[in-house]
Inverse folding.
């Protein structure tokens, strides 16, 4: 975790913000990442948002999301995206209350890679 956090904090396309109570400690965090894909405009994606259950419904999550959105606008980005597992109905309600609308339903596929993986031969030019 420490290595990943250092890497993210060193990248200008990432932001990690934390929420702390007045008496110290950590009650929540959010990770925002700027992304650009060929088929879509530049956007900020909420890579993760965690708020301690004891602080749910106190505006902590809302504040963290608003801070990431403001950071994105400062970087010239005018669209935000967040992915939620289908079973997380409470998160769906939360993001809906912030103005997010469902854009699509998809499946996520993963494949572990190894150093022994070899690339396919060069494709023929057409």
């Amino acid at each position: 975790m420490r290595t990943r956090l250092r890497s993210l904090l060193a990248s200008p396309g990432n932001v990690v913000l934390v929420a702390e109570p007045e008496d110290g400690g950590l009650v929540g965090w959010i990770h925002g990442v700027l992304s650009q894909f060929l088929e879509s405009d530049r956007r900020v994606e909420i890579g993760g948002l965690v708020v301690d259950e004891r602080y749910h419904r106190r505006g902590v999550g809302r504040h963290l999301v608003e801070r990431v959105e403001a950071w994105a606008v400062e970087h010239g980005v005018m669209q935000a995206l967040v992915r939620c597992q289908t079973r997380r109905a409470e998160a769906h309600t939360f993001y809906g209350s912030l103005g997010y609308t469902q854009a699509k339903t998809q499946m996520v596929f993963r494949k572990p890679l190894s150093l022994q993986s070899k690339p396919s031969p060069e494709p023929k030019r057409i």
